[in-house]
Amino acid sequence: MIFTRVFFMFHHIRARRKRQLIQTLAEELRLRGVCKHGYPGFLYVEGEDPSVQAYIKEIKRMRWQSVEVRRKEQEAVDGTVSSLGKVRMMDGPFGVAEVDSSKAMSEMLRAAGLAEFLQKAMKGVGA
Questions:
Q1: Could you tell me the pTM of the whole model?
Q2: Could you tell me which of 25, 27, 28, 22 has the C-alpha nearest to residue 99?
Q3: What is the CATH number assigned to the segment(s) 2-123?
Q4: How is residue 48 annotated by DSSP?
Q5: Where in this chain does the record put each Small nuclear ribonucleoprotein Prp3 C-terminal domain (predicted)?
Q6: Which helix (H) or strand (E) holds 121?
Q7: Does residue 46 contact residue 32 with C-beta atoms inside 8 Å?
Q8: How confident is the model over 89-118, as pLDDT tens digits?
Q9: Would you tell me how many other CB atoms lie within 10 Å of the CB of residue 1?
Q10: Strand duo 32-36 + 41-48: pairing
Q11: Kind of pairing, strands 2-10 and 41-48?
Q12: What's the rounded mean pLDDT across residues 51-69?
């Protein structure tokens, strides 16, 4: 099994309907993540690769002023609960937590052990 994490950057995420779709789609595909709405918009999700790929496809199908995958990482795991627990960085229920500021999102990702991933994503390394 392949475990994937991805970071998107948007010109903005404002529309309530799009914000709801970001959340609902993550829940349906059993992904976890965090979204910073407003200007600019940021979105981080992680989960099993087929689900993340479907999520990327659906997000890009929506009408956005601009959307860019800034970073994507993949890791091979054997699919056991213990190995998934080692690569999964976000805890809690499936879905996307919403935050109001870049600082809050940064703090959440850093607390989850994703400081290096976030730094590379902001530089656009590894998309």
A1: 0.91
A2: 22
A3: 3.30.70.100
A4: E
A5: 8-75
A6: helix 115-123
A7: yes
A8: 778 889 999 999 999 999 999 998 888 888
A9: 14
A10: antiparallel
A11: antiparallel
A12: 92
Tokens of residue 68, six digits: 């860019």
65: tokens are: 């002023």
- Domain coordinates of the chain in residue numbers? 2-123
What is d(CA 15, CA 2) in angstroms, rounded to the nearest whole number? 32
Provide the token pair at 70.
Answer: 């800034």
The per-residue DSSP string of 75-116 comes to: EE----HHHHHHH----SSSEEEEESSHHHHHHHHHHTT-HH
Structural tokens at position 43? 């979105």
Sheet holding 32-36, edge to edge: 67-76, 2-10, 41-48, 32-36, 95-99
